[in-house]
Amino acid sequence: MSDGYASVRHRPAETCKNIRRCHRATVINGLTTMITETLSSPGIESRHSMTRVLLKWGALAALVGAALYLILALYAQREFVFAMLFLVLTASAVAVFVSKKLYAHRYIFPAIAGMGLFVIFPLMYTVGIGFTNYSASNLLSFEHVQENLLSRTYQSEAVRYDYQLYKTEEGYVFWLEGEHQNLTSTPVDLESGERSAPVLPVSGKPQGEPLSIREIIQLRGELSDLTLITEDGRELSQASLRSFAAIHPQFTLHDNGSLTNNQTGVTYFPDQETGFYRDGDGNALSPGWTVNIGWDNYLKVVSDPSIRGPFFEIFVWTLSFAVATVVFTLALGLLLANLLQWDQIRGKGFYRTMLILPYAVPAFISILVFKGLFNQNFGEINLVLEGLFGIRPDWFSDPALARTMILIVNTWLGYPYMMLLCMGLLQAIPRDLYEASAMDGAGPVNNLFNITLPLIIKPLMPLLIASFAFNFNNFVLIALLTGGAPDIIGASTPAGTTDLLVSYTYRIAFQDSGQNFGLAAAIATAIFLVVGALSLINLKLSKIKV
Amino acid sequence: MAMVEPRSTKYRVLASHLGMLAFIAIILFPLLMVISISFRSGNFAAGSLLPENPSLEHWYLALGIPYTGEDGVTTQPPFPVLLWLWNSIKIAVVSAVLILALSTTSAYAFARMRFAGKGFVLKSMLIFQMFPPVLSLVALYALFDQIGNHVSWLGLNTHGAVIVASLGGMALHIWTIKGYFDSIDRSLEEAAIVDGATTWQAFRYILLPLSVPILVVVFILAFIMTIMEYPMASVLLVDTDKLTLAVGAQQYLYEQNYLWGDFAAAAVLSGLPITVIFLYCQKWIVGGLTAGGVKG
Fold it and tell me: For residue A539, which residues of chain B lie inside 8 Å, CB to CB?
């Protein structure tokens, strides 16, 4: 490789017969060698490049060090997927920035890494979650659940002391009266946040008046956090406003993995099928952990009537919404584009600016504006309708009207884009075609269907598919306008008649109390398949050359 | 132009003008209405397009100034709109700069260099660009939760997370810039390289100055797209004073706390600059947008 570059470089330019080809060879072969040449050339330059090399390696080493720390920390926390992700990222970064062969990849690495980290990895991770029962009730890993249960404690009624609290100059002093012995504590500075204190057996009460119950209630926050430790290491905590009792660990772990509840004596066995500790009767212990449940989420969508019904209703609405949006916006956009292309029309600049205004206003603002305008009670649209026709449609509580409203708003939002597309494409149609058709006496309608449409449909198709895919997943519109309302009756998950599949998954994952991430991810996976198929078709249709 | 015109043309032109003006009137109704509502007093007032008793109360509140009405009751601003706008602009500027820097260098490699897997990477980028991030929000949430445990300024409820997450959508910009680079003759750079310039120098001192127009377009596009991003910011940001405008604005229209007039003023205040930028740059933006089919 270095030969290729050096030879071209040292040859006088005029001897190179085909300059262009020579130059191209230079570019391709010389990419990697130039760095080495600069580095190895003698003199001042080399000292300068030495610092650069040192800097470069120093920065690389620092980055790798930071990344390795992150990876080890994740590994220690048993987050293997994330540790693996960052390991792959760091390794490829090092490979790309060290290897001379991969010089060109240095330029694309940050962008590719960004896509990998924030598009491809989340996508694969979501597909993975679809096969688990990850949800609010099964949020943690098995190890974390076990840790959580083993750290629980309970207070035994057997070892119990009534207490009185005395305020002294050094702090608060506890006086504990038990069945067998009385204890007193060293002064505790409750206000400054002391959380534990030793107690010793004594015979006599402290001096002075004990605090009243009202003063104790004022200290209840501090008291409930306080642990008193006896001479034999037993821990006492507040059991009621008047008593302290011993704390015991709630569960004991056995070698076979089972847990025994020390208070009730019930033994729980880990059930790795459902992700819960269960006793002999099958009663589950909360919290559960995340386990792989195979195709259960998908089966649930197909078999559970309270999910299947809403799912298919939403699916059909999503499809019709996306198709209707594309048809309406295209029809309107094409009509307006045709008018704007017409030579006879004056003031095109004015019309054009006015017509693309809905596109220029940020969508999150115009959607909310429509939400307010369509409001059933105070909205201006209903005021106008009532004034003109005496009707007040229930835009947000009647499913058919809510869907109509969504289509109106989305057509308003989307037609300028189609208009701009069509204007670009119409300009490419040769004018003499229309000239010829006018000679033959064809009207505008004939022109549209026999000249315009056949000529623009081919370049338009990929853009229409992209628009379909975009609207199929038009989350922002639904989330801001209706939030999915009105709800579908009889659904066990949150599901609305105006929900699109994508807002449906969002609600299952983030708005439902159960937070069924697994089910949401399974539905998201199904949407991935639809989107993937659409984009493959699109790639084929648009015949992109790379 | 020697076009054959039927006799009815005159009436058709007139009808077209009338039709378009009527259409524009309908289209602009919501926008004009919102401007009008922002000047009405109270949050439930009905009235005509021109408010009878114009009041600036909503504008005071939108600008963060407490308003004292004629009845002597002082209203505090319900939400920190200017702070949200500032958050949005901050996030959008930083991510637009990052997106511009990273996608320009990538586009350079894709346009000028030959390397293994180039076609495959370019095509995959086009495909993955169509997957909306809202579908993998659970995974993104978990990802930033994990990162945040170790790097606090990139965790949940930070602007860093939103900025970094926006880097996932660079494919469109890379394609736009690559298309522009492809249209520039490469012989200039080749001549520079023959004269001893490094690849980086050829890129930095020759190609970049020639590409300023497309870089401006991509910067504005990336800026507007980040300002309008809703799903990711709505999951990643929690605290009221950290929200972006796109996430915060909806809080005006909750059923329990319906602040229609306050919303109108805030919407005009924050929407107007973005609309003006868009209209001003529309000539350049449209070309970039139509290439990818991102909106509408």
Answer: 123, 126-127
Spatial CB neighbours of A292, under 8 Å, sequence gap ≥ 6: A131, A132
Q: Which amino acid is at A340?
A: L
ipTM of predicted complex:
0.89
> Which residues are within 8 A (CB) of B103 and not within 5 positions of it... i.e. 6 or more apart?
A111, B170, B173, B174, B177, B218
User: Residue A294 and residue A130: Cα distance in Å, rounded?
Assistant: 8
Q: Which residue has the tokens 């289509």?
A: A407
Residue A211 is classified by DSSP as: P
What's the Cα-to-Cα distance from B139 to each of A77, A113, B129, B130, rounded to whole Å?
18, 17, 17, 17
What stretches of A345-474 show up as alpha helix (H) in DSSP?
Answer: 348-355, 357-360, 363-373, 380-389, 399-427, 431-439, 444-447, 453-472
Query: Using CB atoms and an 8 Å cut-off, which of residues 55-94 of chain B contact chain A?
Result: none
Q: Angle at which helices A453-472 and A517-542 pack, to 10 degrees?
A: 160
Write the CA distances from A275 to A7, A133, A385, B6, integer angstroms.
68, 8, 56, 78
Do the beta carbons of residue A243 and residue A163 sit within 8 Å?
A: yes
Query: What tens digit of pLDDT does each residue of A401-433 get?
Result: 999 999 999 999 999 989 988 988 888 888 888
Residue type, A339: L
Q: Cite the residue boundaries of each domain of chain B with CATH code 1.10.3720.10.
A: 79-282
pLDDT tens digits, A467-506: 998 999 999 999 999 998 898 888 888 899 999 999 999 9
CATH topology of domain B79-282: MetI-like fold (1.10.3720)
**Residue located via tokens 């994990």:** B146
Decide if A27 and B295 are in contact by the 8 Å CB cutoff: no
CA distance B91 to A282: 51
Beta strands in chain B (DSSP E): 67-68, 74-75, 253-254, 257-258
Q: What pTM, to 2 d.p., does this model score?
A: 0.81
Asked if B198's CB is within 8 angstroms of A126's CB, the reply is no
- B182 Cβ contact partners less than 8 Å away, ≥ 6 residues apart: B111
Window B:207-266, CB contacts with A under 8 Å? 224, 227-228, 230-231, 234-235, 245-246, 249-250, 252-253, 258, 260, 263-264
Q: What Rg, from alpha-carbon coordinates, does chain A have?
A: 36
Residue A228 near residue A197, CB atoms below 8 Å: yes
Chain B residues lying within 8 Å of A31, measured CB to CB: 113, 199
Judging contacts by C-beta atoms under 8 Å, the chain B residues touching residue A477 are none
How many other CB atoms sit within 10 Å of the CB of residue A363?
A: 22
**What's the N-to-C CA distance of chain B in angstroms?**
36
Q: A378 with B44: CB under 8 angstroms?
A: yes
| Cis before A494? omega within 30 | no
What pLDDT score was predicted for residue A476?
Answer: 94
B149 and A CB contact within 8 Å: yes
- What span, in angstroms and rounded, lies between the C-alpha atoms of A410 and A325? 7
Q: Is A91 on the interface with B (CB under 8 A)?
A: no
Chain B contact present for A371, CB below 8 A: yes
In which element (H, E) is residue B64 found?
A: none
